[in-house]
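Prompt: Have a read of the protein record below and flag anything odd:
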Amino acid sequence: MPVGRRGRNLEGSIRREADVSKYRTLETYRSKRRFDETTEPSGEDGHRGTENGNAFVVQIHDATTLHFDVRLEADGVLKSWSVPKGPPAEPGDRRLAMPTEDHPLAYREFEGVIPRGEYGAGSVIVWDEGSYRVLTHDRQGRTKGLAQALDEGHVTVRLSGAKLHGDWSLVRFRGDDGSGDREAWLMLKRGRAAAPSASPDPIRARSALSGRTLKQVARSAE
């Protein structure tokens, strides 16, 4: 059935509103970076994300402190947490996960060196990537969307990556109440223990994209 002019206008309006909403979501990300200096994506390239909107990526970032960044695709951006010790591998293990600003979808493929003097200066590799499935349900047994579950402060996801396979939860244990304490979460392993590769030495870990280590990425930028 052909779509009339009114239908096309409505579809275009919805798309424009979504683009504006995504732009506003990325304001904090953009305000911290100078894109004439860093090669990080600005998020203005029209990147539409994955077909199912359920990608995840885990990057290792050798910044002021060496840490892992866990990112889950939702609502046209990557919801992000800094996990200093990386995703836990053993059931019951819990790791501090500090939320960071939403990142553009193109950041899933970012690997390189953020220049000295820029926000987050240091080497970055894509340690793992793949897709996720939300396992959290409402009282009627319906699967929640990731954004809704995060708003409520608890989500369990099943990760299917090159290195991470299994279930993990993100649980908010401290909100931003204006007292000066930052919002904070925990990342917990559910179900079976993860494979040994799920808890790597970050210095020796290799990129899922290029096979390079952090040191090799740093050398390539010299």
Remarks:
- The radius of gyration is 18 Å.
- The beta strands are 55-62, 66-74, 77-83, 94-103, 112-114, 122-134, 154-161, 165-174, 184-190.
- DSSP finds four helices and nine strands in the chain.
- The helical segments are 5-25, 27-31, 146-152, 214-220.
